[in-house]
Design the sequence.
């Protein structure tokens, strides 16, 4: 039982993960992920036919509240953490030419 | 005449003396900062210390205490808080470069409750980056050392909190536990740590790692402190949709309770782990069995049984935790807070470069794994499979708790490893979490209490695991144990 993760797969996953890996990091990721998946494959020893996937241990339901503003205006303080801001907004590199 | 240090007192004892007017809040702070001055340079328990703010808070608290307006069991106690819990006006870094300069505009609900109870927050403790690790070695700010042997790790991910309590650099601390991150460092540093039932403490303001597994809890000097802290931080919070409205959070009431007839189960499979390579240290096994013997003398009925599925918990956990982490950590993109890669780039390049430079290698490893197991084509085979096995693990615990009040076992297979020993082989490090991880998958409460030392003088811990909402049984048993051995 062995998983071979190709470098193409690593490139694809890096796009999903929004990571820009160096060639060395890609090789390391290929090795790490193959090892981890080999290990995770142990779960296939168990027959889970008919078992419902359990995302939460308790029955959780959405918690709703009235759509009213409950907090004060923290915008200045919040923008204080922004790497760049302009006119009360987060500033990012140009996205539209 | 030189005053005797207040550090010999527990948090609850200290607060009693403060309220009785025998100790000033600033005297307790003086003692804590004297130790910090002496030991912090080597131990590195903290990412941020707030000495000035602590003394300002102390003045205010002292006035309130003096006029009788503050009577909580934690009034005036110097506390440390893990650096993944938001603290208004104080940096909260998660020990990551990507949040190095982040200063929250609000405090986590648990922190707020602690402050309302009169605790003095003196600083933010070091941790594995984004709580991903078992040694505190993945911190961007450098390792924390174990106060018992500074060549060894304090455990993790709440390693800074555990080491700070053990060293006397605070009286008690908050940590978070996703797969053992409170219990295992508490064990390695010889302190008491507790993870409550999922949903007991609001996660509002806790920087999320594995949201379905994360819980906040105390690291403290003894069982009574743990109970008192948990009582303060437990709450039903509309800001956390998984928070539970519990009426039985008067945890300190359980402390004096008799444990005669309490049924305690020891999973045989916890002691037969050689087949999967983790290997339970014989000294640890002996100390844990010794603790069971003490509880038996106190009237508990101890019995061995087969829990089953023990070796499937780790692959299940790492699949689920990595999946949730990859989703939770998407928010760190250099736009709203934290690090942004310098220079003008195209937007998508900015995201990728910011994240690649901002995250450390263990975090990237888990984000990659999580992105993979959630990707189309692999989602069913890995992610849903893990959620199905999780259901089986939960069922195994349900069956065990039909027979037993508590499950007793080790916290970790060994005592604290040497610095640098664990990170070279991630899977080996993950195997060390075998006794703690299934508790998070099943949402259960568990407590780690010191139960001896190995031949190197390193602390060993015993873990008591309860059914959901059964913290009081754990606290009663743990308290009886502690009283018997002290």
Sequence:
């Amino acid at each position: 039982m062995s998983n071979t993760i190709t470098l193409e797969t690593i490139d694809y996953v890096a796009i999903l993960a929004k990571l820009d890996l160096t060639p060395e990091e890609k090789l390391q990721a290929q090795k790490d992920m193959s090892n981890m998946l080999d290990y995770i494959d142990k779960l296939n020893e168990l027959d889970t036919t008919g078992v419902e996937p359990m995302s939460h241990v308790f029955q959780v339901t959405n918690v709703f509240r009235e759509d009213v503003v409950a907090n004060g205006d923290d915008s200045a303080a919040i923008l204080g953490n922004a790497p760049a801001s302009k006119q009360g907004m987060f500033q990012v590199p140009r996205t539209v030419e | 005449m030189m005053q005797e240090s207040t550090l010999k007192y527990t948090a609850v004892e200290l607060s009693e003396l403060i309220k009785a007017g025998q100790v000033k809040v600033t005297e307790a702070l003086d003692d804590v900062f004297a130790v910090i001055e002496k030991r912090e340079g080597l131990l590195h328990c903290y990412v941020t210390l707030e000495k000035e703010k602590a003394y300002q808070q102390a003045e205010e608290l002292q006035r309130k205490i003096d006029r009788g307006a503050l009577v909580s069991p934690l009034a005036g106690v110097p506390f440390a808080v893990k650096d993944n819990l938001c603290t208004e006006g104080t940096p909260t870094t998660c020990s990551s470069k990507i949040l190095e300069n982040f200063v929250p505009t609000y405090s986590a609900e648990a922190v707020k409750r602690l402050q309302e109870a009169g605790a003095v927050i003196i600083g933010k403790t070091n941790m594995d980056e984004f709580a991903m690790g078992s040694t505190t070695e993945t911190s961007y700010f450098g390792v924390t050392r174990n106060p018992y042997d500074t060549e060894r790790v304090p455990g993790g991910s709440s390693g800074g909190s555990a080491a700070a309590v053990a060293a006397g650099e605070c009286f008690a601390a908050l940590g978070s536990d996703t797969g053992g991150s409170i219990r295992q460092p508490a064990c390695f540093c010889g302190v008491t740590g507790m993870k409550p039932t999922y949903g007991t403490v609001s996660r509002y303001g806790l920087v999320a790692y594995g949201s379905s597994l994360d819980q906040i809890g105390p690291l403290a000097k003894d069982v009574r402190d743990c109970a008192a802290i948990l009582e303060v931080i437990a709450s039903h919070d509309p800001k956390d949709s998984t928070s539970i409205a519990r009426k039985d959070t008067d945890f300190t009431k359980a402390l004096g309770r008799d444990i005669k007839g309490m049924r305690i189960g020891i999973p045989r499979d916890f002691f037969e782990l050689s087949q999967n390579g983790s290997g339970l240290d014989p000294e640890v096994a002996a100390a844990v069995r010794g603790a069971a013997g003490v509880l038996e003398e106190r009237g508990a009925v101890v019995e061995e049984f087969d829990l089953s599925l023990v070796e499937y918990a780790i692959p299940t956990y790492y699949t689920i935790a990595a999946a949730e982490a990859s989703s939770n950590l998407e928010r760190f993109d250099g736009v709203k807070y934290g690090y942004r890669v310098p220079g003008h780039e195209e937007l998508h390049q900015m995201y990728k470069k910011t994240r690649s430079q901002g995250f450390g290698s263990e975090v990237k490893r888990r984000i990659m794994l999580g992105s993979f197991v959630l990707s189309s084509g692999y989602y069913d085979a890995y992610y849903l499979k893990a959620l199905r096995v999780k259901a089986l693990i939960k069922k195994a615990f349900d069956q065990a708790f039909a027979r037993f009040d508590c499950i007793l076992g080790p916290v970790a297979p060994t005592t604290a490893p040497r610095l640098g020993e664990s990170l070279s082989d991630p899977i080996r490090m993950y195997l060390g979490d075998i006794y703690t991880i299934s508790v998070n998958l099943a949402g259960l409460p568990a407590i780690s209490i010191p139960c001896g030392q190995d031949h190197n003088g390193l602390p060993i811990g015993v873990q008591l695991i309860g059914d959901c909402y059964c913290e009081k049984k754990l606290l009663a048993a743990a308290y009886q144990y502690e009283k018997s051995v002290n």
Notes: Chain A has a mean pLDDT of 92.
